[in-house]
Specification:
This protein is an alpha/beta fold.
């Protein structure tokens, strides 16, 4: 693979379509979804490929709730001769309604569409960010369900272990009242004048324990509330979640050391973001909390999927990522049951926002790894 082809994409890695590349719209339903009255299908995507070709190796990406139709890797990979399906489930932009089994049905619909219309020789999943644990959940189910087609290989790219894990690591444990976004226990406030980085081991231990306690406390309330609703003949309700940008690693690079800047998080300034509208879980239903965010109840975490992996897998982690860290990549790699597995650390941010050489390097790593195994 020549670097020249990739270098032409500098500054054109998101919504723009490279010259000679087609992105074909796909709209279908899955076995558990229906077309909406307004006309759109529940599952939607863009299939990227070189004009006039029918690629025999295809990558597929999806996420819990983010729109991956125009993923930043789609154009670059299509230029290398691969097909790329950027796939959205019915839960794109609808985080508070997420149900794991329905999302797996929607991923299956995308896989079946590829097999039916494109007939590729190999299908490779790219589990990017939250897509890692979600697509791993599909892969694990496909290992035991003959109605689902398993991918031929799996790329974990800046992937965290699961949304319950990442949320808990970001939860602000100093919250004393879930109904008051300003409630605060100063002894557990990572942004207070009394608690400054580098944080002491005692503070880190108390803090991490309190984060798990907050997650469990919300889960206990959700279960109690579900009983109350069911007894009243109701089904579900929405509730708000506040203060979810408080990972100690946002402020202290000595914890899970990497090349990332600090203070920093995906929302910019961590303290300001923590008291703004939450990035994760800001609006939940009772059922979705248990499906996606609860440490005790969610089955979407990678620990539930890793043991079923038998396909080749590569874990790639950026060293400047301010929200997914070296320990996350090591955790995924260690849990993977695949005999053929690799772990690589590369330069760059979470989505390689800086483009340039870092994006070229990760594309070369992915494509070379695929060629050695599948071509």
């Amino acid at each position: 693979m020549s670097a020249g082809h990739i270098e032409t994409l500098n500054g054109v890695v998101t919504s723009e379509v490279p010259e000679g590349i087609v992105n074909e719209f796909v709209g279908i339903n899955s076995r558990s979804s229906q077309r909406y009255p307004t006309g759109q299908h529940a599952c939607q995507g863009l299939f990227w490929y070189k004009d006039g070709t029918q690629p025999d190796v295809v990558f597929m990406l999806t996420h819990y709730t983010a729109d991956y139709m125009e993923h930043y890797l789609a154009g670059p990979l299509a230029l290398q001769g691969y097909g790329v399906l950027g796939w959205n489930t019915r839960f794109t932009g609808a985080e508070d309604r997420f149900i794991l089994d329905d999302a797996i049905d929607d991923i299956a619909a995308g896989v079946h569409w590829l097999q039916r219309t494109n007939k590729p020789r190999k299908i490779i999943f790219i589990g990017n960010s939250g897509g890692g644990s979600l697509m791993a959940a599909y892969t694990a189910k496909a290992a035991t369900d003959n109605s689902l087609s398993s991918p031929d290989a799996f790329v974990f790219l800046n992937a965290h272990p699961g949304r319950a894990d990442v949320l808990t690591n970001w939860l602000d444990p100093s919250v004393t009242d879930e109904n008051d976004p300003l409630s605060r226990d100063p002894s557990l406030d990572m942004y207070s004048e009394e608690n400054k980085p580098p944080y002491s081991k005692d503070f880190i231990d108390r803090y991490r324990s309190a984060q798990k306690t907050r997650n469990h406390r919300i889960t206990a309330w959700v279960k109690k509330e579900r009983v109350r609703f069911e007894q009243s003949g109701a089904t579900d309700r929405v509730f708000s979640l506040h203060r979810t940008l408080a990972d100690l690693r946002f402020m202290d690079t000595s914890i899970d050391s990497s090349d990332r800047p600090a203070p920093a998080c995906y929302a910019g300034d961590p303290k300001r973001g923590n008291y703004n509208v939450s990035l994760l879980g800001r609006s939940c239903t009772l059922r979705t909390w248990l499906e996606m965010w609860s440490l005790q109840d969610s089955k979407a975490g990678f620990e539930h999927s890793a043991g079923a992996f038998r396909i080749p897998a590569i874990v790639i982690q950026s060293t400047c990522d301010v929200g997914v860290y070296p320990s996350d990549a090591q955790y995924l790699y260690d849990l993977l049951a695949s005999k053929d597995k690799e772990l690589h650390f590369v330069k760059g941010g979470h989505f390689f926002e800086e483009g340039g050489d870092n994006l070229i390097a990760v594309l070369r790593l992915m494509c070379d790894w695929v060629k050695k195994r599948l071509v």
